[in-house]
Amino acid sequence: MRTLETPFSHRLEDLAPRDRPEPQPPGRGQVLVRVQAAGLNYRDLLVATGHDRWLSPADRILGSDAVGTIIATGPETERFAIGSRVITTILPKWISGPLTPEKRKGGLGGPAADGVFAETICLDAAGLVAAPAYLTNAEAAAVPVAALTAWHALTRGGALRPGATVLVEGTGGVSLFALQIAVAAGATVIATSSSEAKLERLRSLGASATLNYNERADWGEEVLKLTDGRGVDLAVDIGGAASLNQSIKATAMGGVVSIVGLVGGLRAEIDLGEVFQKNLRLDGIETGSRTMLEEMLTWFEDKRIKPVIDSTFPFDDARDAFLRLREGRHFGKVCLSF
Fold first, then answer.
1. N or C: which end of the chain has fewer CB within 10 A?
2. Claim: this prediction has a pTM higher than 0.90
3. R_g of the chain computed on alpha carbons
4. If one looks up domain 147-284 in CATH, what number appears?
């Protein structure tokens, strides 16, 4: 079978499918899945390039997000039957409840375990969820990390409700899912981008107000103006070190800043005075459990939420998909088809 693995050089330009033997027959509680589509996340760039804590073995199969059809089942596998279409979860041991060190182990497509960018994968059935029939393969593959992260942030931040105000940053997967979910819940959304064309598309998705952060470094002040000085109830922060202080500034007293991304760096100098004077809560968001994903997909199906797909590349052109994600020109999810 063909796989996509971390290049020995840790250069995206050297990414190319490799051949590897087919997986062994599934063991107890396991299934074999024939992958049909996969979704890229920023984390995949970090693993592929060996960045910081995401340094992995050079032959690590990349990727955490995929949809496929079960082609074989092992003993004592009752959740799914052959022919079921399923979606992967990045943390297959996190079934429900709060995250623990044990549930955190075995994250797919990183330092701990092989991922899903392969034609056939063997996984524990307990870590899979049924793919909604109304979603295409690419749409289903776009959901596991980005949508669940956004859902987790909004639900834990108390913003999945009418009347809430939410700030989303940029036009990557998590930000667009946060926008779509918040709008569907009746919340008011302010969205940022560096592109006027993208800002127009954000408004078409339901953003009540938009602002170009390239035109004003102190864009948190602009968010305050847009909310009559109050600030937003929830800021979904994507940029990490590059944006966290502006997100804090943009948030209302008693509000929440959900830290879900790190595209602007891992380590930030925080204005603590702003945090405690506003009585803010800084929420670190790690994707979510399988149970959360199932609840979210039920809600999605009821609301008929469809992921925004930027582009879908054939598996043979996976390098181009990674390069597009790195360039940051995408609007929505970048996917692979098998």
1. N
2. yes
3. 20
4. 3.40.50.720
